[in-house]
Amino acid sequence: MRMIITGIIFSFLMPSFCFGSVISNIDKSKIELSTRFDGTSLLVFGAISPRDDRASLLVEVVGPPTTVNIRKKVQIWGIWVNKKIAQFQGIPSFYQISISNPKNPILEEIEYQRLKSVFYDFLETTSISENYNATEQYHNELIRLKTELGNLSSFKEKINIIDNKLFSYKVNLPKKIYPGVYKIKMTLIDQEGLELSKSEQNVNVSKVGLQEFLSSNSKNNPVFYGLFSVIIALFLGFFAAQLFRWLYR
Predict the structure, then answer these.
(1) For the purposes of burial, counting CB atoms within 10 Å of the CB of 99, is it exposed (0-12), middle (13-18) or buried (19 or more)?
(2) What is the pLDDT of residue 2?
(3) Nearest to residue 168, comparing CAs of 50, 47, 27, 44?
(4) Which pLDDT does position 15 carry in this prediction?
(5) Which of 62, 74, 115, 151 has the fewest CB within 10 Å, making it most exposed?
(6) Whole-angstrom Cα distance, residue 14 to residue 12?
(7) What is the spatial order of strands in the sheet that 79-92 belongs to?
(8) Where are the domains of the chain?
(9) CA 56: distance to chain centroid?
(10) CA 169-172-174 angle, 5° bins
(11) Are 186 and 44 in contact (CB under 8 A)?
């Protein structure tokens, strides 16, 4: 009986031992967005047991989903207007990917497949006449815009590996980020890109203070939010008028 139990335990441990494993943790699980929020960083750390020295650790940071519309100026009844011609629906508002071995022979293929799975596959065009060149242009424009805004980074951040066992990784979040759950995925891959082991951590980003008050009421109480905005605008206008009157006496 003891031999059978030992064999069962060994059979469960064999895949992890043979193919490698990864465990991870983070230094903070909650981030608060206030009016003074100016970006932040968090530390991801853990341990890996690769099958051999050629295995690589892949770290992905995936932000909450959002929708991006692509518009184009078209002429309708003699008037130029911005018309929505395509849409990326449910794509990450923030995405960052890094690898421990930047000399991986299939690095470009990994990048393409990852971007395809989180961005390219979610493009919806409003016209069936859109050709491949147009959709490729939409992809490139999306990548360019998100990169300029600091919401997309591919293989630029460094993963620190110690003795091929311990790792640490710093995630820098910009000033303008969406509230929601940010998933940090660690994947151990081999030279062919096959996944050997996975680990995932979640960070909850939420609004607090005045930002939370305005955001919540704009969605749940639009009438109150509208009246509140008008009152604030009138008050600021009156205050500015009184200030200038006092200055130019």
Answers:
(1) buried
(2) 42
(3) 44
(4) 45
(5) 74
(6) 6
(7) 65-76, 79-92, 123-125
(8) 2-207, 208-249
(9) 21
(10) 165
(11) yes
Q: How many angstroms separate the CA atoms of 112 and 79, rounded?
A: 39
Q: What is the pLDDT of residue 218?
A: 56
Task: Please state the pTM of the whole predicted model.
Answer: 0.74
The pLDDT assigned to 220 comes to: 61
Sign, Cα dihedral of 57, 63, 65, 70: negative
Closest by Cα among 39, 65, 37, 49 to 13: 49
Per DSSP bridges, beta strands 30-33 and 40-49 are unpaired
One DSSP character per residue, 14-71 reads: HHHHHH-EEEEEES-SEEEE-TT---EEEEEEEEEE-SSTT-EEEEEEE--EEEEEEE
State the pLDDT at residue 4.
35
Low-confidence ranges of the chain (pLDDT < 70): 1-20, 51-52, 126-132, 209-229, 249
Helix (H) or strand (E) holding 133: helix 132-148
- Secondary structure (3-state) at 97: strand
Q: Is 170 exposed, middle or buried (0-12, 13-18, 19+ CB in 10 A)?
A: middle
HSE, side-chain direction, 13 A CA sphere, residue 108: 1
Q: What are phi and psi of 63, to 5 degrees?
A: -80, 175
Take residue 26 and report the two structure tokens written for it.
């983070």
CATH number given to 2-207: 2.60.40.3880
3-state SS, residue 119: coil
